[in-house]
């Protein structure tokens, strides 16, 4: 390909968790309290180019054409420090990243962002990592990014709870999940594309530290994951949806019970949830999941997606509704220099 040891471009897509990642047991290494499982989408790609600049004294990061400042820029520089450590090279980098998804709106822009950055930066710095190692690396940028390294359905292992930090770090990566073909679609209702009031990082911390519902949810999530694997393995979309919906509602319950409460769900969210219930009463299998924001993703069969999308549009006339399917994992683009 056109990749050289000094420049590389990668593309990654967001993923939506059906079994949620919510809560870290190690903030620095981004080790989660629980395993999680997601579907990588075929919409909202992030494209990131990383070029080494031997003359630069600082990394230069551009997000959608604007110089990244503050927290967003710091997170990327911290991540590049890690890549420099792994590569033994000290060169600063010029990073140009383009997101087609609203940033920080609970639409997983950090997942596609850090998956693309991990793949592009590893190539630009000349470190040869397999998919497992790329997933571990992406995890250090944003936990959910570990799953966007893979296409389709992926499970992210929390990693061993005993032993050294290095052992835990080695054991916490994503991998593809064996599934029967359920021909799934996610109908995405963007009810508010603005940035969230509380970052997922802060919300997780507050939930783990203060919510009396956190432990029970984390424990029940183990059974949800086991049930989800079985349901995916036998291609049972109804069961997949039911498990995903209960796991997501449980996650939101943990944060509603945090002190002070974190509430991402809005009236428009609830309007979509009501419509999803109505669809089920009308014998259309449709199941909702929500992340760190008011937007709703509705899992259904691809054949039912147009009907589900119409119902959701009707519930939130001011929203934007689109249909996503399973997408590819993060990958390099050829022809770059
Ligand atoms: O990786 P982060 O810090 O963006 O956290 C994402 C957490 C959720 O999207 C709410 C759940 C998940 O598993 O993706």
UniProtKB/TrEMBL annotation:
Its EC number is 4.1.1.33. Belongs to the diphosphomevalonate decarboxylase family. The gene is mvaD. GO terms for biological process: isopentenyl diphosphate biosynthetic process, mevalonate pathway. Residues 187-318 form the Mvd1 C-terminal domain. GO terms for cellular component: cytosol. Keywords: ATP-binding, Lipid biosynthesis, Lipid metabolism, Lyase, Nucleotide-binding. NCBIfam families: mevDPdecarb (TIGR01240). It is an enzyme of class 4 (lyase). This is diphosphomevalonate decarboxylase. Residues 12-161 form the Diphosphomevalonate decarboxylase-like N-terminal domain. Signal peptide: none annotated. InterPro entries: GHMP_kinase_C_sf, Mev_decarb, Mev_diP_decarb, MVD-like_N, Mvd1_C, Ribosomal_Su5_D2-typ_SF, Ribsml_uS5_D2-typ_fold_subgr. One of its GO terms (molecular function) is ATP binding. Transmembrane segments: none annotated.
């Amino acid at each position: 390909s056109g990749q050289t040891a000094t420049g590389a471009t990668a593309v990654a897509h967001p993923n939506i968790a059906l079994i949620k990642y919510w809560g870290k047991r190690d903030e620095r290494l981004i080790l989660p309290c629980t395993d999680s499982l997601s579907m990588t989408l075929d919409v909202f790609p992030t494209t990131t180019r990383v070029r080494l600049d031997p003359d630069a004294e600082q990394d230069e990061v551009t997000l959608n054409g604007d110089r990244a400042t503050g927290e967003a820029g710091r997170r990327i520089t911290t991540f590049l420090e890690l890549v420099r450590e792994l590569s033994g090279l000290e060169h600063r980098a010029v990073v140009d990243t383009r997101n087609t998804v609203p940033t920080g709106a609970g639409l997983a822009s950090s997942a596609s962002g850090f998956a693309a950055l991990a793949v592009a930066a590893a190539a630009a710095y000349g470190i040869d990592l397999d998919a497992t190692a790329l997933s571990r690396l992406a995890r250090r940028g944003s936990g959910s990014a570990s799953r966007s390294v893979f296409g389709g359905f992926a499970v992210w292992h929390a990693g061993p709870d005993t032993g050294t930090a290095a052992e835990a770090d080695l054991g916490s990566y994503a991998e593809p999940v064996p599934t029967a073909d359920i021909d799934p679609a996610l109908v995405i209702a963007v009810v508010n594309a603005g940035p969230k009031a509380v970052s997922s990082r802060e919300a997780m911390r507050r939930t783990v530290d203060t919510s009396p519902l956190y432990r029970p949810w984390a424990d029940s999530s183990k059974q949800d994951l086991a049930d989800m694997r079985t349901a995916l393995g036998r291609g049972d979309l109804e069961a997949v949806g039911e498990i995903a919906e209960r796991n997501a509602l449980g996650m939101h319950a943990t944060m509603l019970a945090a002190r002070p409460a974190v509430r991402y769900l809005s009236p428009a969210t609830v309007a979509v949830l009501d419509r999803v219930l109505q669809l089920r009463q009308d014998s259309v299998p449709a199941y909702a999941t929500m992340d760190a924001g008011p937007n709703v993703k509705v899992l259904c069969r691809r054949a039912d997606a147009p009907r589900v999308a119409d119902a959701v549009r009707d519930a939130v006339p001011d929203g934007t509704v689109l249909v996503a399917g399973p997408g590819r994992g993060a990958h390099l683009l050829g022809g770059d220099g």
